[in-house]
Amino acid sequence: QVQLVESGGGLVQAGGSLRLSCAASGRIFSYYSMGWFRQRPGKEREFVAAIRWSSGSTYYADSTKGRFTISRDNAKNTVYLQMNSLKPEDTAVYYCAVDKGFSYSDYDREVVYDYWGQGTQVTVSS
Which runs of E-coded beta strand occur in 14-119? Predict the structure, then answer.
């Protein structure tokens, strides 16, 4: 069993930056992967970024590539999402999640993720 706790959300002006953290309790095996998703107002939850725990290989949605960076600290069992050049359309509840594996074809699908955090609100003002 893995429990996830996100932090770092808040209110920021457009063009600003935030760093989200997701601390995992429980054993994170090397073959796990972790992802960030977000749910914007009135929209379905969507993929933001993912990282393979062992290799650190990263994957991004087109909408966030170049602005967001996912990273992990194996010793702290923590994954981060550095968000730069934020836009009002980035306003959302951000969730981290753990997949007990990795699939090159499905890493952007929330259905493959086994554990989820409670989410943290990010609001970007114009």
Answer: 18-25, 33-39, 45-52, 58-60, 68-73, 78-83, 92-99, 115-116
If one counts every other C-beta atom within 10 angstroms of the C-beta of residue 12, the result is 17
Rounded to 5°, the CA angle 102-39-59 comes to 30
45-54: average pLDDT: 95
Are the beta carbons of 53 and 31 closer than 8 angstroms? yes
CA distance 50 to 35: 4
User: CA-to-CA distance for 59 and 69, rounded, in angstroms?
Assistant: 9
Tell me the per-residue pLDDT of 58-102, one tens digit each, with 9 for 90 and over: 999 999 999 999 999 989 999 999 999 999 999 999 999 999 988
